[in-house]
Amino acid sequence: MQRKRCSSCGGLLTTTPSGGEICLSCALSAGVKVETESNADISKDETGDLQIDPSVVRYFGDYEIIGKIGSGGMGVVYRARQVSLNRVVALKIIQPALVSDLKAVERFRFEAEAVGRLDHCNIVSLFEVGTVGGSQYYSMQLVNGEDLEESIRNPTKSEQRLHYRQIALTVIKLARAIQYAHSHGVLHRDIKPSNIVIDGNGEPFIFDFGLAKLLKSKGRITAPGTVLGTPAYMQLLAALLQGLLALLLL
Fold first, then answer.
1. What pLDDT, on a 0 to 100 scale, did the predictor assign at position 88?
2. Which pLDDT band holds residue 189 (cuts at 50, 70, 90)?
C-alpha cells in the first residue's frame, strides 16, 4: 500500500497509533517534539490543526504542550507550561500554512506588539515573544474560565442570578480597559463576547488583538478597503462605509 504524502512539504506521512496521519518533518520543523511510541496519540482534528494528547509530553521550545485551547485564522492556542519558570500559560503559535507568508508573520508579530504595550488588570498580559524552528509564537496570561459568548448561550444557574449591578460593573470594567488601551495607542477593532473571557471570580478579560491598530504606527498591514471586525458587532455606519469602499476598489 502506497503511503500518502504531506500536502505542505511532500514528505511521507506517518500513521499514528490512533489511526491518524502526521508529517513528522513539518511537526519537527515547527519545534514540536513528537513521540510515536505505542502510548502516543497524535492526530489532526477537524480543523486540520495538530491535535496533541495531553497525556503525552511534547515540547515547543521552552514550553511543554498540555492541550489545545482553540484556533483562529492566524494561529493555534495551546495550554502550555513554560518549563524554565514552571508556570502555565496560553501559547499562541502561528498557523503552519502562514509561516512563509511575510504579511501574515508581520500581522502576527503586530498583534503581540499591541498586547505587549498594555498592562491592565482586565486585559490578558503578554509574557514572551519568539521563534522556534521558523514558527512565530507568543505566550500570554492563561485565564481559566469561559468566553462571554459561551456564557450567554449556556448560562449556568449562578449566572442567571446575577444582579443588574454586577452586570453593570462588568461593563464598566471592560469600558475602562478599552479606554486604557486607547490611551496607550491601541485600538482593538474587534470587541465582541467571544473575545472576552470571564474567570472563576467573575473578572472579565479582553484578548485577541489580531485586528488591533497602533495609533502612532506609520506602517500599514491591512490593505485599503479590507472589512475589519465581526459584522454583527461593528458600528453600522463603519460597516457600510467599509463595504462601499471595498466595492469601489474592486
1. 96
2. confident
Q: Are residues 28 and 126 in the same domain?
A: yes
How is residue 81 written as a grid cell?
507550561
Q: Is residue 6 part of a domain?
A: no
**Residues 53, 115 within the same domain:** yes
Position 185 in a domain? yes
User: How many whole angstroms separate alpha carbon 28 and alpha carbon 75?
Assistant: 17
Residue 72's Cβ-side half-sphere holds a number of Cα atoms within 13 Å equal to 14
Mapped onto helix, strand or coil, the DSSP state of residue 178 is: helix
CATH number at residue 83: 3.30.200.20
Residue 33 near residue 55, CB atoms below 8 Å: no
Q: Which residues are catalytic?
A: 190
Cα separation, 129 vs 35, in Å, equals 26
- With a CB cutoff of 8 Å and minimum separation 6, the contacts of 128 are 82, 138, 139
Domain count, the chain: 2
> If you average pLDDT over residues 44-64, what whole number do you get?
62
| pTM exceeds 0.70, yes or no | no
| The three three-digit cell numbers of residue 73, written as one number | 485564522
